Model the fold of this input.
Amino acid sequence: MPQPDETTAPPAPPHRIAADFVRYAVALEAPELAWGYLHDRLTAEDAVRLAFLRRCDLGAPGEAFARVHARGPDDATELAAVCREILGDDPEDARRVWDHLALSRDASRASSEGGGAGDGAAGGGADGAAAVEASRRQLADGHREFLLDRAASGRGMNWQESSALLGTDRPEEVDAAFDRGEELVGVAVIGLALTHPDAAAILPRVARALDRALETSDPGLRHQGIVALAHTARLHCTVDRRCLDLLRRCPRGNEADQDLWGYVARRWLPWWLWRHQLGERLRWLSLRR
Done:
């Protein structure tokens, strides 16, 4: 019988939800984070990490998150005391987001395993189909309340501070900022390129920035879109056709030209970028003679 690997950490309790899931799924508010820690939905380390991320999102208005982060994960008693102060007198309202997160996490797992939202919890027949449909409606309602509505109102991020926007995690925040016409939306696109793990979530927002910049002749937004595309190429080694088509309409020799050439497989790159890069190389060689 094989011996257990003592270096492997035991699995997390099923009621806990990882910080890396929470940060992308909802725009968490301070009482909700406090409830999550006090009711063991988050470890101390994850609670403090999420508090740091949300403090970065909000800047000065994130004072409650700053208090949790400043307390740190080492003294559970002190951390719990701070969380109880932040939670206030309406714990049931703060609990609702965790019900949504648990449902969303389970739906994500079912989807990755080939099922659908609620498929694993419902039996067959009409009752099972009704349960699945109810689960999907609940999931959609929570997604709208805890992410889309908060993004639409602008309360999920501090749209006055570039430093806060460079930590943008959630694509939905960027979409809502475009809809509102936020002045610093290009900074948020750069932040998304730097922080989001999935290029498929980043590239459509980069394309939207470049498209709007070219339509409105906005050189600042155009440069921000180019920088975001360069970061995406460097960090994810990929690009899509829409971004390439828009980039072609921008002046050559920019950051995205260089990082696409340096980090993306060249068989995926268009002829016009090959022509530019090889032309630059030939000019460089001629100057060395």
